[in-house]
Amino acid sequence: MATRFSINLIFISAFLLLNFASAARILENQDPMLFKYHNGQLLTGKITVNLIWYGNFKPSQKAIISDFIASLSSSKSEAQPSVSKWWGATEKYYHLIKSKKSSSLQLVFGNQISDENCSLGKSLTLQQVQHLASKGDQMNAINVVLTSNDVAVEGFCSSRCGTHGSVVSKTTLLKGKNYSKFAYIWVGNSETQCPGQCAWPFHQPIYGPQSPPLVAPNNDVGLDGMVINLASLLAGTATNPFGNGYYQGPSGAPLEAASACPGIYAKGAYPGYAGDLLVDPTTGASYNANGVNGRKYLLPALYDPTTKSCSTLV
After folding, report:
1. Which of 7, 157, 194, 265 is the most buried (most CB within 10 A)?
2. Are the C-beta atoms of 258 and 235 separated by less than 8 Å?
3. Span of the secretion signal (predicted)?
4. Residues pairing with 285 in the sheet
5. Which phi-psi region, left, alpha or beta, contains residue 46 (left: φ > 0; alpha: ψ -120 to 50)?
6. What is the pLDDT of residues 67-119, one digit of tens each?
7. What is the spatial distance between Cα 51 and Cα 183, in angstroms, rounded to a whole number?
8. What pLDDT digit, counting tens, does each position of 228-250 carry?
9. Is the distance from CB of 220 to CB of 214 less than 8 angstroms?
């Protein structure tokens, strides 16, 4: 048994951003109760993030994602602004809940599983994605399925760049009691299929203002785009893991912590323009967060429930 609570297409084309940026402004100006807590569970305690690689990924590509996960909770003294500071903004959601359920969340990097031979083929349904997610450890975990650029997934590019949801734990089914779920995320590499939709602003958008694409901070348009979408979905998973946490709109297609702020990466953002980002003087790459091992990343704005506005690192 599985439940998919949100299908978070990170609509990247500038044509769609025009509508979404307007929606974000409306969200900030309307009754704040529209973006609210629905009395459900948030992810709390020590949660392991496991990566399930489906298809062919180079070691250098895997390192981009694994370093990002490690950066979320890094205790090392990193250059600012940092990935861990970005993730720390999600704590505001927990502070608003006046109950034991509001204890903090700690993400730790877990195991990695590789299925380079694509055991389920190269055209996956969402049910098959959930099956792949179940291969990871299921106790106190988020299992992240990452599909390579030659793997098609149901709805990929046409309606989504990734999704998150929950699946009933195998342990629960075997024991027949203690009903529990584990969270999962899927993100696809859009490099060859739809980079204008799922890897903007590192690729020319399909519609709308045609500003030049930005230089990707890790020199990989597909993987840097995956980081943006993974970051958005992680924020949504933490604050709305089972469909009754924080969100605005219908439960089947909610605006969550990051998806409520589409296309915004820095101050000054507007449709077709990601904002006034930091630029690496050596590579010319645009970014807004520093990570472990000297990494640089571009991460989405997060909706701040205390100020009722979209908040950026820069």
Report:
1. 265
2. yes
3. 1-23
4. 215
5. beta
6. 999 999 877 667 899 999 999 999 999 988 865 455 789 999 999 999 999 99
7. 12
8. 999 999 999 999 999 999 999 98
9. no
